[in-house]
Write a structure and sequence with these properties.
The protein is mainly β. It contains two helices and 13 strands. The protein has helices spanning 5-13, 30-33; strands at residues 37-39, 43-44, 46-47, 52-53, 60-66, 69-75, 77-82, 86-90, 101-110, 113-120, 125-129, 137-141, 146-148. The strands form three sheets. Strands 1, 2, 5, 6 and 13 form a five-stranded antiparallel beta sheet that branches. The protein has a five-stranded antiparallel beta sheet with strand order 3-8-11-10-9, with no helix packed on it. A three-stranded antiparallel beta sheet has the order 4-7-12, with no helix packed on it. A hairpin with a 2-residue loop joins β5 (60-66) and β6. The relative contact order is 0.19. Residues 11-23 and 25-33 have low confidence and may be disordered.
Length: 150
């Protein structure tokens, strides 16, 4: 059976929490470099004023290395009232991208638009793009955010 990176990532997401090891890794561990899976612990995003985590769904990120490729995963939901492109958070200490990292994230469905752009700058700022005064973003869910890291 042929396995591509998407199927491997899907399998890694199904791993039990018992396999989660280490902290937020910035380098690929030996096990991951040889085709294994290495998942860092979840760390809270540092939210900006006016950005409120939903109960039980604090916005978090972690690093996952799978078959030699490193990914950033996010989870959680926050409430907001965005009417312009807005910085919503900062990455936790120790996580610094080397380039802009982007992904699509679900948002409140307004005027047929149900996704926004989630972007992390090289400085570690997390910004949400796509809101305007006629189509404000009132919540964003990060569970679908998975992007190649570094």
């Amino acid at each position: 059976m042929s396995q591509n990176r998407r199927s491997l990532l899907g399998a890694a997401l199904a791993l039990p929490a018992a396999l989660t090891v280490g902290g937020l890794a910035t380098a690929a561990p030996a096990a991951a470099a040889t085709g294994g899976v290495e998942a860092g612990e979840w760390a809270d995003l540092v939210l900006e004023p006016g950005i409120t985590p939903q109960t039980g769904a604090t916005p978090q990120v972690r690093i996952l290395t799978l078959a030699g490729t490193t990914y950033l995963q996010a989870r959680g939901v926050f409430s907001c009232n965005l009417t312009t492109d807005t910085k919503v958070a900062t990455l936790p200490a120790g996580l610094t991208p080397t380039w802009y990292t982007r992904a699509a994230a679900p948002r409140n469905n307004s005027q047929g638009i149900n996704a926004c752009r989630f972007e992390i700058s090289p400085a570690g700022s997390v910004t949400i793009f796509g809101a305007n005064t006629g189509n404000p973003i009132t919540w964003v869910q990060l569970d679908s955010v998975q992007t190649i890291w570094r």
